[in-house]
Predict the structure.
Amino acid sequence: MAVDYTNETSVSTVHLPNEDMKGRIIGREGRNIRALEAATGVDFIVDDTPEAVIVSAHNPVRRAIARQALVTLVQDGRIHPGRIEEVVKKAEADIEKEIAQAGEQATFDVGVHGIHPELVKIIGRLKYRTSYSQNQLSHAIEVAFICGIMASELGLNVKLAKRAGLMHDIGKAVDHDIEGPHALIGMELARKYNEHPDVVHAIGAHHEDIKMESPLDIITQVADALSGARPGARREMFESYIKRLDDLEGIANSFNGVEKTFAIQAGREIRVMVQSEKVTDDESVILSKDIAKKIEAEMTYPGQIRVVVIRESRAVEYAR
């Protein structure tokens, strides 16, 4: 599954008019293809695939720039290092313009205004980002509308809810360049550009990386889950998905004192219920670390998995 998913999300194909074009793209002693890779920061794969060159990179914006530049060069026919540098710069400008337009269109469609221009550009970058094959700009717009509907039903600020929904995943637009959970990256970006404090907190809390404090936080999380859960929105091999959840729960259940285990949020979080008479509060802290280490050692997964150990004691009596 990892190979299939990576191939689908990290490569683009440029079709060529004929096989002779491959030699011109490579250039004498490889100078053209080296100039292309240096200018764009992506890999160009020229192999036995008939009349095609593969553009490979995890950064979707760079890949889009590289693909557009190569298409222009092939159509133009003049391929040499000087021309390559010129075409790549033009492609960068075109893609940046397209990103800004996509961000502006998204804010217009959702009906939110006054967002910092840099944040609008970051929203536009989501056009080139996917998660489980779901386009993230379409997802953000969908979440914004769901947030607005829920806020309206609950008598909350609809405009604020839409802002939080539209920007909840902006961290994914730059997570190729900045390390950390996308929710916290997005929260810092929103804070940097003076977004409303409630919106900033909702972005950071939508995967519970920080504690939820308001109804807006919960609305954003629920709307995100609803958009992702819509049939057809995401694509993943069902058998692999179920196996990953089973493996997660199996690892946690292998520890002494564990009563029940629940993998939630598509396997991004695991909640472990322990027997209070067998596990103390201090041992709960150690148990969460031990489970996390075992998951790291035995499983392969994207991003991070949150391990929550829950210990509760109940006193029950009946009034007769």
Residues 251 and 295 are 7 Å apart (CA to CA). The chain has three domains: 2-92, 111-229, 238-311.
